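Morning!

This is the sequence you dropped in the shared folder:
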Amino acid sequence: MVYAQALILIVALLLGFFAFMVWIGVRYAMLTWGQTTPVMEIPVGAVYLAMPIGFALLLAHLLLMAAPYVRTKTFVQDDGFDPEAVKL
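The structure's back. Tokens below.
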């Protein structure tokens, strides 16, 4: 039971961190949008959009993978995966 509560706490902390980083990343991209790169003259903010996009994808992935565990306390199973096949 303690393990399940710890895992839920970790998932909640990760959700909070990912959401915070999306927010910070969007603010940072907006702050630097007025600057352009010297050669290609694209907004620097466009380059910095990688951070909020990446964290938003992490957030979506965590929600997809953790939601079944939080609801049913079972891990996502894949019938096509055989962990014994990897042994050397």
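Headline: Residues 16 and 59 are 9 Å apart (CA to CA).

More detail when I'm at my desk.
O.
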